[in-house]
Please model this.
Amino acid sequence: MIWKYIFGRPIETGAVVMGVPEGPQDLPDIPGLKIQEQQEGVKLSCRMESSDVVYGLGEQMRGIDKRGFTYISDALDDAVHTEDRHSLYGGHNFLILGRREQPSFGIFVDDPGRVVFDVGETEMDQMVITAGSDCVVYLVGGESLKDIAKQFRRLIGRSYIPPKWAFGYQQSRWGYLNEEDVREVVQKHHAQGIPLDAVYLDIDYMEDYKDFTVDKERFPDLPGLVKEMKGRGVHLVPIIDAGVKIEEGYPVYEEGVAEGYFCKDEDGKDFVGAVWPGKVHFPDVLNTKAREWFGGKYRGLMEQGIDGFWNDMNEPAIFYSEKNMEKVMDEILSMRGKNLDLHAFFHMKDLLLGLSNNPEDHKSFYHDMDGVRVRHDRVHNIYGYHMTRAAAEAFEKIAPDKRTLLFSRSSYIGMHRYGGIWTGDNKSWWSHLLLSIQQMPALNMCGILYTGCDVGGFGGDTSEDLLLRWLGAALFTPLMRNHAALGTRRQEVYQFGHVDLFRAFIRIRYGLLPYIYSEYMKAVFQDEMYFRPLAFDYPEDVHAPRVEDQVLVGESVMMAPVYTQNATGRYVYLPEGMMLVRMRALGDRVCEVLEKGHHYVDMALDEVVFFVRKGHALPLAVLDDDIRSTADMRDLSYEWIRFGDGPVEYVFYDDDGISREYVPQDRWEHVVI
Ligand code: GLC
Model:
């Protein structure tokens, strides 16, 4: 059951695809639930019992249970993801209030501006959601947590499907400067027998950080390189940033200006912000024509053989705006030679720090939403979504028969139909390893299935043990990409002493790929979550809602990775008897049945451990020693990992991995093992 309430004159975000009539007027029978229209906007409040758990909010900080903090949907380019952060890169305004005594329900606030979720921070037992005055609120009922999530997913439409190779291992780094760097990365993985499916091209491949250009000195023959790499099974994936460099003679800039495709300031002039290339204009991707135009620009790279992209800096990130910079400079210069006391000094510091991603800047530029002028702050959270939509809609025309890899940094619910996301600039911190696991089910609830974090950590220097544990934790994550920032310690797995362990882990990932892919596709077609908190599958279990560091993956697996430095094991809670699988290599597997309950499980650094649920099975591909990428995985044979007393059935999805011809559900293979 879905209740829909419209307030004011909402902006169409495209998040919801299913037609739902407004009403019914009476709120569902949820004790303590109130929706009020107030001066500051629409306010939704609800009492929480101590046993209630709040799931969702997509890419946000903190745990699986969101209680005890305030989260703000206000997409932000911020590379310091500490516990006190209220916003990351997206706006994922869906949560489920999981209740023990009364029916659970979901809330989706469709508002592309700032939305505040005070989930028991101000008052421990009160949830207060404050949106703008123009929004649509959906309340989603269902028989169970799983069912509520499914009803919501039906509302927002089918999730994006990447090519199969995008489930392979991928290597990235800000700072691969030229062809030789790319070749070296591929060669060194392969020389060590480590499979690899993609290498990323960060901003360094461009000419002066200009979108859709290629630096001819550093990449003199991109089509040749793409072809050579594909011959080795490796795809090259370039980055595209939101800001378009202001430079005479640069066609994207010139066309955008001539056609009026950029966002405008108050005076109707093209708004000037600054990002990597210095001053830029932002394409007005909320305008249909501008979106078509910007999307069409991906064609140039695709004609050079590129079949995957990552869209970045699309909150949009603004280092500074031209106008604010002038104001700040004037004020700071006026302080010159003065004796700055506490207040004056910190004011100066704030002025400088406030240059970037300043909310005032968001109020100073406008979109032309097909004839309607809308100030940016009102639609801030759907900018990255529409940049990604621009690309995806263009791919439909440029490469209609094929799947193209696409993911974004900023997103909003609705974008999950066009691409995935990665979780942005995390750090090489153990706490971020845990965070990456906790974010996955929350993202899946919002439809974002193709996702993962920067494995090993983006900022800061990783360590060999952290990277090993992180690969273990990312074993089942659809996007498994090792990415690191410029200036950090080199993080490719061959840089470390125990390369044999890394090889073993990555080969285990490839062995598990048929399961990962099958479960991903089943989740897409059945509107299911690929990653789920334990309570979703064990609703009667009293401990399950309290488990913050274990997740279910697909129908057969539970993960409980190590995320603490120097730990050689961890506590695991089993909501039913499960089979522990301990692997040191593809052919080195030990299984052990454990009873329902609490266990301390040893997990040495050189092994990956996961659990198989009772009555379930999973395929494990038998791989040759020399496979280099998913391209070498044809005509596979499988070993099965199974746990059950009698025969166990597994529903196995597979297809060619590249065409858009998917296998209909009545033809999915039912394997009995
Ligand atoms: C942003 C991205 C990061 C990328 C960097 C340079 O910080 O989040 O992944 O490496 O920009 O393009």
In short: Residues 430 and 563 are 6 Å apart (CA to CA).
